[in-house]
Design a protein that fits this description.
Number of helices: 33
Number of strands: 0
Helix content: over 70%
Oligomer: single chain
Mean pLDDT: 82
Distance between the termini: 93 Å
Structural class: mainly alpha
Radius of gyration: 30 Å
Shape: elongated
Length: 672
């Protein structure tokens, strides 16, 4: 009898898990048709050399140094795995994000069921979480992999802790044999701590997990007959892992973490901390809560306006705190589970409230709600099903109908939002429609039109940004790129010099943010000057750009050509080799130039290797075949030289140099 009941319970649970996984996949499957977007996907994936052909040196760098300005080794390794399987096809990267989100939704169901002990409620908590439209940004944006990946490990950590906690706080040990649990609790607890550590290696904002576990223990201590001392001891390993990670990343590696690390601490302003807490941070909580309950106007970037007097901010803050306190007290009196949901929501929001004043104030982002929304979904489930807990069958039906209706509305909104993320043009057009004053969106949309050679539209869009702010450096740089693409060099030079002057006047450094265009400005100006024959000025700018960021590989591209022009062949070889080492992009022309330089140095074997790589990338490069023909002729391989000349002429029948070499070989009787 007991076994049949248990089997029935398992089937119901399996059915709920299947419903969660299936609906999550159907609603978010639109992301599988999406492309990479031109905001950070290029830097994180397309141009990230550390995810390609992983070797010991690259693996060591990933694990011990920041990549793309942040220490997120597991995220980088997940990209490397995707690249191994899919290359640069966006489908595979989006599929990984979607699968991780499905797993997270399943874990939310298991956690909700463990806490609430109500299967139907747990089912809808998982659906409220997985289908909410603010999830789309984390699932559809490849760069937001860190949200779903760190979320997976954090949810695993919390679920395994719940398993451990329920096993170690059994009221009646005789009902569960002791022997199987002698090693199991320690193993499960260790797995929870390990999963928490892995989450920090995916994204450090999960550092609030120790507070979540401690808060959970306090809320349910009386109910489960647990002492404060045991709760504190269980929380301690999580705090130690968080402290060790913060120290290692912030002061050993030196990357920006929750408090900015060594790089961010230079902006620390203790005098602003209280003001920030009572004004900006309070407003952030209100904005995120509004977005959770009413997910309208979703966009990647929002324009933040810091307005109003300190008195107005303080007055509004007090009213927010009072309302929130009353609501929390009402929830606490009725359900400790719901009160814990509020705690989860707030504690996981803490890293995004910028209570510690750093350099940059960031507005509300949809993706920052990914982990906090587990608490929101649980609270929403409580509010929807409250009357059903102890109500009549009729009230239960009403609650179910309301839950289904909310799920349906969330699903429709998510499907619509997924369409917006299908390509960069849709994304930025949507962003400008909802936030017409967000200037950076104009710049990114301009880049989309430039890539498609829609120059008139590109110029029209970037001029709209300049009309709003003539001192916006990105817009001047974007207009310079439009002119450069149309070979309007004088106009391009004028605009890029304006952008350079504006950037140089900035009081803060922009080298590590996604808004950084300093190296790009230097590079574009150097390229313009190079094409206009002002070699020395071009070289100075490129060297300054490389000094500011040694990893800015595009600067090596032009600098190598300058050294070739100046007959400084050995320096050109060093620069081109550095480009190939740092750049994830395979450029046939760089390999060609490297081969030509090596041939000048009479290092023919390496020259042939470089030219071979150029032809692997671009088999229709006549210059590479001709360069190989010259090397073979010098070394006395007449047949090979003739074959290479003929290949060059097949591609370019009018190639005079290839014809002359072929005629020379014939006159000297070198062709058998």
């Amino acid at each position: 009898m007991f076994e049949s009941v248990l089997d029935s319970e398992r089937k119901r649970t399996a059915f709920c898990l299947l419903v969660v996984a299936a609906l999550t996949f159907v609603v978010h499957s639109g992301v599988l048709k999406s492309e990479f977007v031109n905001v950070t996907d290029g830097r994180e994936v397309l141009r990230n050399r550390f995810i390609r052909d992983i070797d010991t040196a690259k693996l060591k760098h990933i694990l011990t140094r920041p990549v793309a300005g942040a220490y997120l080794p597991l995220k980088t390794l997940s990209y490397a795995l995707d690249y191994k399987i899919w290359g640069l096809r966006p489908f595979g990267y989006h599929l990984t994000n979607l699968l991780l989100h499905i797993l997270n939704s399943v874990l939310v169901f298991l956690i909700a069921w463990k806490i609430w002990r109500k299967r139907t409620l747990a089912l809808f908590v998982a659906l409220f979480f997985s289908l909410h439209p603010t999830r789309v940004e984390s699932v559809a944006w490849v760069t937001a992999r860190k949200d779903v990946l760190s979320g997976f490990f954090l949810l695993v950590s919390f679920y395994t802790y719940l398993v451990y906690e329920s096993a170690s706080s059994l009221q009646a040990p005789e009902k569960a044999p002791r022997r199987p649990f002698k090693l199991a609790p320690g193993l499960v607890f260790g797995s929870s701590v390990l999963a928490f550590g892995l989450s920090l290696l995916s994204k450090p904002t999960g550092m609030c997990q120790p507070l979540i576990i401690f808060f959970y223990g306090l809320i349910f201590a009386k109910k489960k007959g647990r002492r404060f001392s045991s709760i504190a001891v269980e929380s301690l390993p999580f705090f130690l892992v968080a402290a060790a990670f913060l120290f290692y990343t912030g002061f050993v590696i030196g990357t920006d973490t929750l408090v900015g690390g060594r790089a961010g601490l230079r902006f620390f302003r203790p005098d602003l901390m209280i003001k920030r807490l009572l004004t900006f941070s309070a407003k952030q909580v209100v904005d995120y809560t509004k977005l959770s309950f009413f997910p309208a106007g979703l966009a990647l970037f929002r324009q933040f306006v810091w307005g109003g007097s300190p008195g107005e901010w303080f007055k509004h803050t007090l009213s927010y705190i009072l309302l929130f306190a009353l609501g929390s007290y009402w929830v606490f009196r009725r359900s400790k589970e719901a009160f814990f949901s509020i705690g989860w929501y707030l504690l996981h929001l803490v890293p995004f409230l910028y209570i510690i004043p750093l350099a940059i104030i960031r507005p509300v982002f949809d993706r920052y709600l990914y982990l906090p929304s587990v608490g929101f979904a649980s609270l929403l489930g409580f509010l929807v099903f409250k009357v059903a807990f102890n109500g009549t069958r009729k009230r239960t039906i009403y609650s179910l109908a309301l839950a289904v209706c909310i799920t349906f509305l969330f699903s429709l909104a998510s499907v619509s939002q997924n369409r917006i993320w299908q390509n960069s043009e849709n994304l930025w057009r949507n962003n400008l429609r909802k936030n017409p004053k967000h200037l950076y969106s104009y710049y990114l949309l301009t880049l989309v039109y430039l890539s498609e050679e829609r120059y008139q539209e590109a110029e029209q869009i970037i001029r709209q940004a300049l009309a709003q702010d003539a001192g916006y450096a990105d817009a001047h740089y974007g207009l310079a790129r439009v002119y450069y693409a149309q070979n309007r060099m004088d106009e391009a030079e004028e605009e890029v010099k304006v952008a350079k002057r504006l950037i140089d006047e900035e009081s803060r450094e922009l080298l590590t943010t996604i808004y950084d265009i300093r190296q790009q400005i230097y590079h574009l100006l150097a390229e313009i000057l190079f094409k206009k024959g002002e070699i020395e000025k071009s070289k100075e700018l490129l060297q300054e750009a490389i000094k500011g960021n040694p990893e800015y590989f595009p600067a090596y591209y032009i600098l190598g050509q300058i050294f070739m022009k100046e007959k400084r062949v050995e320096e050109a070889v060093e620069v081109f080799e550095e480009f190939n080492k740092k750049s994830a992009e395979k450029d046939a022309r760089v390999h060609l130039w490297l081969g030509l330089c090596l041939a000048d140095l009479k290092d023919y074997q390496k020259a042939l290797e470089a030219l071979g790589k150029a032809l692997e990338i671009n088999p229709d490069m006549a210059e590479a075949y001709l360069a190989r023909a010259k090397i073979y002729a010098v070394r006395g391989y007449w047949v090979l030289a003739t074959e290479e000349c003929k290949k060059a002429l097949e591609i370019e029948p009018e190639n005079r140099e290839a014809r002359d070499l072929l005629e020379t070989l014939k006159r000297r009787g070198r062709i058998p």
